[in-house]
Amino acid sequence: MTIQEAKQFLEKEGYYIGNLWVIQDVQGIFNCTDEQALEVLDKALTNEATMEQIQYSIREFGEMGGYEEIIGED
């Protein structure tokens, strides 16, 4: 499967694929191995502050779009 085919598959399954990060994003800043770059990405993208900001943005843009919030769901 090509990368494009994998993206198309994920998108069909409901995943947002418009902003994907790769190890080169880290290695363009730091001299590190592929494994170290993946670790940096994992920590950067799954830390509490990042996750809170994403949830905040989802809520804000949903409200701006006029979508009705589901009470009791996050």
**Overall number of strands:** 0
How large is the count of helical segments? Answer: 4
Main pleated-sheet profile:
none
Low-confidence stretches: none
Portion in helices: 55-70%
**Intertermini distance:** 34 Å
Order of helices and strands: HHHH
Structural class: mainly alpha
Give the overall pLDDT as a whole number. 95
Q: Give the overall silhouette.
A: flat
Taken as a percent bin, the fraction of beta residues is under 5%
Q: Tell me the Rg in angstroms.
A: 16 Å
Give a description of the structure:
The chain is mainly α. The chain has a domain of 45 residues. The chain is 61% helix and 0% strand. The chain contains four helices and no strands. The protein is flat. The termini are far apart.
What key phrases describe this protein's structure?
flat, mainly alpha, 74 residues
